[in-house]
Amino acid sequence: MPKRYINRQIEHILKTAVKQFPAVIVTGPRQSGKTTLLTHLFSKIHNYVTLDNPNIRLMATKEPELFFENYKPPIIIDEIQYAPQLFSYLKIMIDKQRTKNGQFLLTGSQLFPLMAKVSDSLAGRIATLTLLPFSVKEQFGKQSIFGLETIKKIVLKGGFPAVVVRRDLNLELWFSSYLQTHLERDVRQLRQIGDLGDFQRFLGLMTAFNGQVLNLSNLSRDLGVAVNTVKAWLSILEASNQLISIKPFYLNKGKRLIKSPKVYFIDSGLLCYLSGIVSLEQVFKGPLSGQLFETIVLSEILKSFYNKGKIPKVYWWRTSYGEEVDFIIEDKGKIIPVEVKLTSKVNLQMCKGIMAFCKLFTEKIDKAFLVTLTGEKVILKDKITAISFSEFTNQL
Questions:
Q1: pTM above the 0.85 mark?
Q2: Confidence band of 193 (pLDDT split at 50, 70, 90)
């Protein structure tokens, strides 16, 4: 039986980029659907080659000219990070035929080292897009309205295509295998780590810091490793698109602010697995439930940016007096404060942080949201609206 293909929201901007640039690279976490996306849309015209194949990878790294003799454009090159030597040759080939767009379509799974090579060799010649796992709109369609049980399923499973499409999948087995693959490939390639057990303990500990202000000293002490090691491990998780660091928002308007970043896992399914949450009954139980709900809200915000070809501008805000807003979204010259509450009942007290923020930045704010589990849309105050999670995803 052929695999079911689910249309991706990024398809429109991807097709536009292919028409405008000689090369396009799609980055994102492993198993987010990058290869499926490109082959589904372009395999009728483009050849396909993967550098996961060790023999092809050896040719690409040792004899790049021979590689391009065997695999001519238009071409899809999968997992390009395994052969960074190809980038300089790509530049030469593109410069010889600058009128031809969409000749080289690339995928890569390691953001930071990969983008350094892209910037050095292909600046102005390549469009860069990021594909995260499925958004709620991709899974359920636009204008979908769903209740608490469906939200729990979304949280538990996350958005990786294999998990979403295969209903008979054993979640624990899949995420366990995914982590082993991630550890063996990305961790060992990005940084030589002798004891993967220490890194696995670090992953488990990071679940307790999800949605929290990052304190490197505490992490270092709890793990018994140097602060620089913690920084390196965090960079690996960010480079492989497993984790994102949300910086604080401030514009020097009157109040001293807390300026440390918060960290979040991007996929809630992976976060649940690492946290030992394996059933619907466990979702939204325990002291970190609020941060788990914040995770899926943030994930949808990030996907809404990336699927339009934009770099996400998402921050958090807290004053030294305790006034706080979970997420501050900057888009099209406007600011959208978003507070997330794990509740189905709303009141104005829940918006104290948003109201304080609006007083400081009122001229830049047209709307603000209090995102809850379920319930009717309620206007709580001028510009501030309480909406359900499903309605919020429809706004993005």
A1: yes
A2: low
